[in-house]
Write a structure and sequence with these properties.
Shape: globular
Structural class: mainly beta
Number of strands: 11
Order of helices and strands: EEEEEEEEEEE
Helix content: under 10%
Radius of gyration: 14 Å
């Protein structure tokens, strides 16, 4: 069974940048839709973005409107790793960031559709 482990969280100033990694083990994830979610205490997990295979080694990405133009998802299949690069981070984006995977045919925005989850990594924006 595929397992996911995130890393790269930490403290960052508003306007700064941070890169998160999600390493998969237990099986290849090249055909998985791989997504990033974030969650603050008491709130539901929020879709950040996802990478979806559209054929061969070609992937497309989808992002929440709030992060478009600032966040980028990429993947390195040989390393079984997905990345989330965050730029111009905002104070309100402090959250636990989670990597998730699904074999659904289309990119779901709801966390319930994802069957594999990492344990999360905390990102704290602080001045």
């Amino acid at each position: 069974q595929v397992q996911l482990v995130e890393s790269g969280g930490g403290l960052v100033a508003p306007g700064g940048s941070l890169s998160l990694s999600c390493v998969a083990s237990g099986g290849p994830t090249s055909r998985y839709i791989m997504a990033w979610f974030r969650q603050t205490p008491g709130m539901q997990r929020e879709f950040v973005g996802a990478s979806t295979r559209i054929g061969g080694n070609v992937y497309t990405t989808k992002y929440a409107d709030s992060v478009k133009g600032r966040f980028t998802i990429s993947r390195h299949n040989a390393k079984n790793t997905v990345y989330l690069e965050m730029n111009n981070i905002k104070l309100e984006e402090t959250a636990g960031y989670y990597c998730a995977g699904t074999t659904a045919s289309t990119t779901p925005l709801s966390p319930e559709a994802y069957t594999v989850w990492g344990q999360g990594t905390q990102v704290t924006i602080t001045s």
